[in-house]
Amino acid sequence: MKIIPGMKDKEMEVIMGNLLRAGVILSAFVVTTGGIIFLSRHGAQKPNYHFFQSEPQGLRTIAGIWKTTFQGRGQSLIQLGLLLLIATPIARIIFSIIGYLLEKDYLYVLITLIVLCVIFFSLKII
Amino acid sequence: MTIFLLVALLFIGAIAAGLLGSITGLGGGVVLIPLLTIVFKVDIHYAIGTSLISVIATSSGAAAAYVKEGFSNIRIGMFLELATTFGAITGAFIAIYTQPYLIAVVFGVVLLFTVVASFVIKYDIALPQKSSKLAMLLRLNSSYPTPEGEKKYNVTNVAGGFGMMAIAGIISGLLGIGSGALKVIAMDKIMRIPFIVSTTTSNFMIGVTAAASAGLYLNRGYIDPGLSFPVVLGVLSGAIIGSKILVKAKTKILRLVFAIVIVLLGIEMIYNGVTHQI
Known about the structure:
The structure holds two protein chains of two kinds. Chain A is mostly helical. Chain A has four helices and no strands. In chain A, 38% of the residues are buried. By secondary structure, chain B is mainly α. Chain B has one domain. Chain B has a two-stranded antiparallel ribbon. Chain B is built from eleven helices and two strands, in the order H-H-H-H-H-H-E-E-H-H-H-H-H.
């Protein structure tokens, strides 16, 4: 790695570890906030999870979650926190691609890019 | 029962699951799905969605610690993630078209297998002297820290390990679990990677594998905020407490008790599935 001279796999691993931790903490904070709003509004209602009926559109697409979060909905804020959690390993992958690029390890750039594409396909980003 | 009470009970249950999972090293996901489906009568599709999310949380949380210590092999992880992520979206697609009772039966079988893998299979094998050509080409051979200094290791049978990882990915995407037991078998038994490297790299990979099926789960509406929030926070808290007391606790008896619990839950899931109660 040339930005930080002499940086090797080891340092990359340390940064990755911090990245993962920060992602989890941020996500837990957002989920907790959303959970408190959700409970204060719907806590007294009866749950209905016995039969599967899928979630409403606003809670199952990235665009939908983003839009409804700003309407102040607790459930959307929870989903946003969960998206942040899903994004944590993705951020790690993107960071690895940059690391391998700087190490000029093009075989691993390719391998990591394919893994990233599979996840983006699943999230309907591509 | 109100939503408030359900959330409170789920939170307590999830703390216990995360705590036991991290102390025993068997993972918290394996008890979450029976807890949700058998105890709280939640539809299995919601249960696997909730479990998958908590798997990402614990994997990222634990990997943060392991990666820093230098045990996990990032190259092996990245390469094998090719197999697990393709497997995971395949598994998630299969889950969409599979009846709940069938998922329950497969889940029960995997639970029983997890216990067998953790107790019956012996992992203390001698390391191979020679590396395979493919492992050299992919630069998978590395070293890990021991009290006597860095210890080098070589990797063998890359293709076999890759195939096993694809199966682990399918199981993970189908059932919303980390399938760490299968991942460790692929690395330790097939590729002959040292146990400590296998387990920590497996944990590191679980998050990426789960992220691959999480998008599909989300789009299908399997991930419910009301169920996910107490479970994610509970499992995370349990795992953090577990990692703090790990050094002190006598884990042998606890592992045995937890294994018996998992066997019983596995049989219960199979029974409920066969009799179409799930």
